[in-house]
Amino acid sequence: GNSVTQMEGPVTLSEEAFLTINCTYTATGYPSLFWYVQYPGEGLQLLLKATKADDKGSNKGFEATYRKETTSFHLEKGSVQVSDSAVYFCALISGSGNTGKLIFGQGTTLQVKP
Amino acid sequence: DVKVTQSSRYLVKRTGEKVFLECVQDMDHENMFWYRQDPGLGLRLIYFSYDVKMKEKGDIPEGYSVSREKKERFSLILESASTNQTSMYLCASSQPNLRNTEAFFGQGTRLTVV
């Protein structure tokens, strides 16, 4: 079945460091891929997405490129801030059409220190 | 401002009790979802609904049921609560076809079964 695997956390970085959170997936066909973020005490919110191979999603300085050949969708940011501290989830759509549903990875906790 | 509202942020129940978790969305979305979130396991889909009175099992439906009598409301029911159902529960809603839209999440209900 479809699944998503993320690198284990927590990831601890100093402010202005470069961030990479790895995400790989297993799926039939070419699913849409997503990164969701959960700030402390809040629900998840969409960070970025890509719907086809070689697409790059970007938002708030974060980027991820849909790599079909490596079945990956790694999240990157050039310079993290303390306010980026959160849990990051990689996800894909399983199923098709109107009854598709999101399948999530395990989540990666990011802590950014001043 | 779009909103998914879960009726309780924190809930403590006794083993064997019947528990109702309520979720309401104000976006006229067709699709609604219930996930549970556990450390190291990410979000796992319990049930989802793509129309009033329609429901489908997710990956971990055992011990749960759902009800969707009105479009805006999706209830998760623990028929006889057990300690292994202690978790964070997240409700989400979306328009059909997640490739072209996004899912919106509530803030979560942290349920403790004692």
Reconstruct the topology from this structure:
The complex is a heterodimer of chains A (114) and B (114).
Chain A: E1 3-6, E2 11-14, E3 19-21, E4 23-26, E5 33-38, E6 44-50, E7 56-59, E8 62-65, E9 75-77, E10 86-94, E11 101-104, E12 108-113
Parallel strand pairs in A: 2-12
Antiparallel strand pairs in A: 1-4, 3-9, 5-6, 5-10, 7-8, 8-9, 10-11, 10-12
Chain B: E1 4-6, E2 10-13, E3 19-25, E4 31-38, E5 42-51, E6 54-57, E7 64-70, E8 73-78, E9 87-94, E10 104-105, E11 109-113
Parallel strand pairs in B: 2-11
Antiparallel strand pairs in B: 1-3, 3-8, 4-5, 4-9, 5-6, 7-8, 9-10, 9-11
Describe the structure in your own words:
Chain A is mainly beta and 114 residues long. In chain A, 0% of the residues lie in helices and 51% in strands. In chain A, the strands form three sheets. In chain A, strands 2, 5, 6, 10, 11 and 12 form a six-stranded mixed beta sheet that branches. A four-stranded antiparallel beta sheet of chain A has the order 3-9-8-7, with no helix packed on it. The radius of gyration of chain A is 14 Å and the shape is globular. In chain B, 0% of the residues lie in helices and 56% in strands. Chain B has strands spanning 4-6, 10-13, 19-25, 31-38, 42-51, 54-57, 64-70, 73-78, 87-94, 104-105, 109-113. In chain B, strand 7 (64-70) and strand 8 (73-78) form a beta hairpin. The chains are: A mainly beta (114), B mainly beta (114).
Descriptive key words:
A: 114 residues; mainly beta; B: mainly beta; four-stranded antiparallel beta sheet
Give me the Rg of chain B, rounded.
Answer: 13 Å
Q: State the end-to-end distance of chain A.
A: 41 Å
Helix/strand order of chain A, N-terminal first? EEEEEEEEEEEE
Kindly state the number of beta strands of chain B: 11
Our estimate of the beta-strand percent of chain A is over 45%
Number of helices of chain A: 0
Instruction: Report the strand count of chain A.
Output: 12
Sheet/helix structural class of chain B: mainly beta
pLDDT average of chain A, as an integer? Answer: 93
Shape descriptor of chain A: globular
* Quaternary form: heterodimer
Number of helices of chain B: 0
- Biggest sheet statistics of chain B: 7 strands, mixed
Shape of chain B: globular
